[in-house]
Amino acid sequence: MHFSKADIIDLSRVKRLNMINSVSGIKPGNLIGTQSNDGNTNLAIFSSIVHLGSNPGYLGFVMRPDEEVRRHTFENIKANKCFTVNHIHPDFVERAHYTSAKFEAEISEFDICKLTEEYLYDFPAPFVKESVLKMALRHVESIPIKSTNTTMIVGEIQHLIVPDHSMNEKGYIDLSQTNAIGISGLNCYYTVEKIHEFPYARVNEIPDFEKG
Ligand SMILES: Cc1cc2nc3c(=O)[nH]c(=O)nc-3n(C[C@H](O)[C@H](O)[C@H](O)COP(=O)(O)O)c2cc1C
Question: How many helices (H) and strands (E) does the chain have?
Answer without folding.
Answer: 5, 12
